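Notes taken during the Thursday session

The instructor put the following on the board and asked us to keep it in front of us for the whole hour. The protein is Multiple epidermal growth factor-like domains 10. We were told not to look anything up and to reason only from what is written here. First, the residues (166 in total):
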Amino acid sequence: MSYNTGLVICTSRFKSRSRQKKACVNTYGNGCAKNCSENCKHVAAGSRCDHRTGQCVLGCKPGYHSFLCEKACSDWTYGEQCGSKCSSNCYKGSNGRICDSEFGFCKHGCLPGYIGMKCDHVDPRLFKKSKDPLLGKLGRSVIVYGTNTMVIVIIGLVIFLLIVTP
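Then, after some discussion, the predicted structure tokens were revealed:
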């Protein structure tokens, strides 16, 4: 039976302190021959990974997942354990990856009508307030995007009025 006391692994069959084995630091496996993944979160003191298995002690850096943190997030995910989804408003580039795997920033910009690092804000410059007198009489303040939307809003309003008024 062994237990970890920081940087020294003590094995119960060794009685003398001079016979204790030194633990691997940022390495693992037989003879500490394998390096811990660079994708492990860094620790203040000690090793980033388990000295036997290589599993990251504090887990993976954002943008990576799996037992040894060697797998990057898929094209549409990012963050801790790849648990967040990229915005559907990101423009998809030719390489497939649409957002930064660590923070979710859109790599190739936004689809038209969206702004922000994650394309999560509607671009206010593309919108205009309606000054239609009919909408004003109804006490509605409608924000529309282009003439197609205005036509749809007016048709919907007419249908609404036909249903409500006897």
